[in-house]
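Listing S7. Sequence submitted for prediction.
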Amino acid sequence: MIAPLVLLVAAQVQATPVVVTVEVPEPVSIPAGEHAEARLVVRITKGFRIQANPASSRFLVPAQLKLTEDERVHAGHPRYPPGSPYRLRGTSSDLSVYK
């Protein structure tokens, strides 16, 4: 009796789609004491949107890039592109989003 129940539950579970991917940038050599910039390409699956940074309201969670540092490299503050306006059905104001 357990096997049919397991199959029923497994059939109802849907895979969560990958919405955001980040392309790995080209490696950069940085001489000691110098600085460099890296441009990251972030792709959002068609049909999805995420909050821009800054978000439209303090109650919304903006997209954030978090970098891991090591003792040899200090990561500065990321610069985010401007968002695009998007209005949810039934609302009276736009959200700033990336799509």
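Caption to Listing S7: primary sequence and predicted structure tokens for the chain studied. Residues 18-23+38-67+79-86 form one domain. The beta strands are 20-23, 41-44, 50-51, 84-86, 95-98.
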